[in-house]
Amino acid sequence: MKVKRLFTKTLVVATAGLLLAACSSNKEQSASNKLAEKQELNWSYLAELATLDPSKVTDAYSGDIIGNSMEGLLRIGKNSKVEPGVARKTEVSNNGLTYTFTLRKDAKWSNGDKVTAKDFVYGWQRTVDQKTASPYAYLYSGIQNADAITKGEKAPEELGIKANGDYELVVTLEKPVPYFELLMGFEPFYPQNQKVVEQNGDKFGTDATKTVYNGPFVVEGWTGSNLSWKLKKNEAYWDKKKVKLDTINFKVNKSTSTSYNLYQSKQTDYTTLSSEQAKQLEKTPGYSVLKQARTTYLDFNQTKEVFKNLKVRQALSYAIDRKELAEKIVGGGTLPSSSIVPQGLSEYRGQDFATAAKTTAGVSYNKAKAKQLLKEGLAETGTSKLNLTLLSSDDDISKKAAEFIQSQLEDNLPDVKVSVQNVPLKTRISRAEKGQFDVQLTGWSADFADPISFLDLFTKDNSYNFGKWDNAEYDRLVTASKTTDADNKEKRWEDLVQAAKVLNEQQGAAPLYQVNVPQVVRENVKGLVQNSAGVTNNWKEAYIVN
Q1: Which of 16, 216, 441, 511 lies at a CB distance of 3.0 to 4.6 Å from 532, suitable for a disulfide?
Q2: Are 437 and 391 in contact (CB under 8 A)?
Q3: What does the DSSP 8-state code read for residue 115?
Q4: What angle do CA 291, 294, 297 make, to 5 degrees?
Q5: Is the pLDDT of residue 313 over 80?
């Protein structure tokens, strides 16, 4: 597809994609690599699904399922490369502010309806509509009138997207968006079938039967709360000839011991591993480490007086040994964080962003400094002790990390007492959205391969700024990177680097570690594409051989 690569004019993007096996071709499926008669895959997940609504998705697991059962204008393939999706042709104006997408005429929804330009218009307008309360509405910034719409100043119908008939879509930008093409492969920009959305109302996307699909697979068996479901081949998908798998069976196993036992007994074809398992199994066939553009961090609820205090936040951060946490507790190649933006996500002039943005402030281990800062911070807030609850997910890895952090804080800061609450992922997200936490152990995976995917989160009005951190200099730098400096590679890079440093120095959050996931996948599973940013698992062209 001859598409002007706008992101080549801004940052040089480097992502860590992993192709576990070569994609399907006649040559690869020769005598020794023959397609198995039964194309059924069994997959283990660490957490449950939260939603199938592309406007409301927030977690990586739901994103995986939506990303494989639906499709946008463009797709993100191996190594986060942009590929054709529903759009068969993309044209960009010379000033980079108008995109014209020509849609393929054979794209259909799983109910038989045609996928048209109007589905994109409706889906995008629904996402930016304040009534929808989409956490990702902020990503539309830069599209004509999007900011005014999300603020309630203009109607959703005034968004800069227009359908010229059924198969031509025109998008108008107010300013250059360096990562625009990458957004077109991201769930909140997928089309939505208005008839189906309106038929289901508030229940849309809350179970597998209350939505409709236009991607390689359809979802079956998810009730909205159960821990097992299926992806089945979508016979209405325009590119179904490339889809070899008939069924993918999913089962949530929050214990890696349980899931590995299932792997050994051939009841699942894939599982993530604990650090202990990784050490034992690193030479096992099918073992690999998935390098993810994901940072786990502490989020402080700064609506609470004690966490408004910079010294208290810094004290808690300095009291944690990130190297031990990453290497000994989480393990499997996990790295201690030096920045909220993970290593390997992007680079400019040969320098990795995380290296350029590295500071000692906010990410170092210093017990003496932690004690002194806590003493001063508590005095400033008029208290002598700090009792806090650490909110965490209930999978094995999160539990171990939370226990370690609890131990570090209590051992290194005698005036701090920590209670840990481990809850299901869906519950933790809900509580975070409502501000019902003191400190939460949370994480973020890059939605697309650009530092702004992380740095946007901590701006004052961002829907994911659950801790309500507010720093004018930080907001100024992020805004400049998206407006005045958007089309200047060097200035934009410097804006983002400085913003990341401010985040560390002012402890807007406490970056802890970059997740690299040890995993095993059955050797006869081929064609699986895994990326560090966006949809992690792409099963479109995966297949099983004898």
Answers
A1: 16
A2: yes
A3: P
A4: 135
A5: yes
DSSP H helical ranges for 60-155: 60-69, 117-128, 146-150
Q: What is the pLDDT of residue 1?
A: 29
- Asked if pLDDT for residue 56 goes beyond 70, the answer is yes
Token couple for 305: 């007086």
Q: What is the mean pLDDT of the chain?
A: 92
Nearest C-alpha neighbor of 231 from the set 45, 18, 43, 50 = 43
Reference 486, options 70, 146, 175; nearest CA is 175
Q: Which whole number is the average pLDDT over 375-402?
A: 96
Measure the CA–CA gap between 439 and 432, rounded to whole angstroms. 10
pLDDT tens digits for range 512-526: 999 889 999 999 999
Residue 110 CB: number of other CB atoms within 10 A?
22
Once rounded to an integer, what is the mean pLDDT over residues 423-429? 94
What the block records as the tokens of 262 is: 């299932």
Whether the Cβ atoms of residue 443 and residue 294 lie closer than 8 Å to each other:
yes
Distance CA 264, CA 258 (A): 10
Alpha helices, DSSP H, located in 265-395: 275-281, 305-308, 310-318, 322-324, 353-356, 367-381
Give the contacts of 253 (CB within 8 A, at least 6 positions apart): 44, 45, 46, 259, 262, 268, 271
Say if CB 22 and CB 528 are below 8 A apart. Answer: no
d(CA 542, CA 242): 9
Cα–Cα dist 527/82, whole Å:
18
**How high is the pLDDT of residue 32?**
54
- In the prediction, which pLDDT does 78 show? 86
Distances (CA, A) of 253 to 247, 333, 515: 19, 22, 19
CB 29 within 8 A of CB 234: no
Q: How confident is the model at residue 28 (pLDDT cuts 50, 70, 90)?
A: very low
3-state secondary structure 403-467: HHHHHHHHHHCCCEEEEEEEECHHHHHHHHHCCCCCEEEEEEECCCCCCHHHHHHHCCCCCCCCC
Contacts of 379 (CB under 8 A, 6+ apart): none
Label residues 145-171 b or e (16+ Cβ within 10 Å = b): bbbebbeeeeebeebbbebeeebbbeb
